[in-house]
Amino acid sequence: MMTITRFPPSPTGDLHIGGVRTALYNWLMARKDSSGKFILRIEDTDSEREKSDAVAGIIEGLEWLGLTWDEGPIFQSDRFERYAEVVQQLLDEDKAYACYCSRERLDKLRETQMANKEKPKYDGHCRNNPQAKIDGEASAIKPVIRFKNPLHGEVVWQDLVHGEIRFANAELDDLIIQRPNGTPTYNFCVVVDDIDMGMTHVVRGDDHINNTPRQINIFTALGKTVPLFGHVGMILGDDGRKLSKRHGASSVLAFRDAGYLPEAVLNYLVRLGWSHGDQEVFSIEEMIALFDITDVNKSASAFNTEKLNWLNQHYMKTLPVEAVVPALAYQYQRLGITTGDYPLAEIIPYYAERAKTLVDMAKQTRWLFQTPSEYPPKAMKKAFHADAVTYLQAIADKINTLSDWQQSALHGIVADVVNEHAVGFGKVGMPLRLALTGGQPSPNIDEIMLLLGKEKTLAAITTAVRFIQAPSEQ
Length: 474
Prior knowledge:
By secondary structure, the protein is mostly helical. Helix content is 46%, strand content 11%. It has a three-stranded parallel beta sheet, with helices on one face. α17 (407-420) packs across α18, α17 (407-420) packs across α19 and α18 packs across α20 (454-469). The longest helix has 16 residues, at 17-32. It is elongated and about 105 Å long.
């Protein structure tokens, strides 16, 4: 049997990290089957809550991660005729009915049930009640359409994550499947979509568990095969609370903007609730081969930013530099740093060990593209001592006569100045490093100059000398 999965976000906001994990799990299941299919479906029936740019953000986020889809995006708003057709089918088969109950009646019913410590639910007043239909049709009330949920028995399914789950039908009420304005409701639409798209597996958050028995009953009423369901636990923040904006980046594109590589995000998310022995690092190919939804932990998972940072640094160090360059260039662009035709690939080997994110890397290497003109007061007080100008000018003089811009030659220049003035390396190295980088974390001094090039190195030294000589004018 071909595996068909789906990711059905609602365009009511950003694509958040919990949704991305769900998309990843479904994507991996489809890709594990050589003939499998992963469908992107946009559940946009709630027009009042929709945001105009949400769909574009969802698509951009999935594309950034490489979670490509085989069909879609399919919009529920384009399928209203199909939903109306199935509603009519259920009405014709006496599996649904028009409900004319007023808001006042429903509110009073709920108040009474709450006062009696009963579970609030519709009491079936309009079900099999000809007089209610006659009275309703004579009134100005536009009815909703309710599904006739079975009154007896149980809904039982073998959840792919939780194992057997049971719901008594007596605990469920008659679900509204069509609103008074004719628009269909979520629980009904997803069943029709999953039937029409041949869905074999439905993997989603465990906040949908209460929806599942209702949906299974609709599948059964329509005489269709029920897909396999799996419900994964929620993601908690570092503090144990449900992950939200207060924890920082929760939108997937916010992780991109925070300097994370897609490989790191996917690797981290696949491990957030699933494991394969003690292995921490997984290539996409390994994820596809090894992932099994039945091995996912049923409990909530805690987001660990430090582990994500570790993975991100791992991928910055191990991916081919050509694969990292576009993401680094994006961060320079966001910071307003013009890099021109500078070979960014040369930066990455020096900074992958020093930076946890590409934002860190871009900020720490700002000096490569913008000659420092301000310096941290504490570092300046320590490095820009009375003899700093002498040492900096001596280095500049030697650089001016240097024809071979090689790391060994640059190292020799600094060593010569140290020896000629009979001082410790720090006396020369500290002011030179501060002049070149403005106090940013940086590699060895000869590597700094190698990355900067002759012209920028001399410009930075000249700027620092002028600053030391006339700080009040800066």
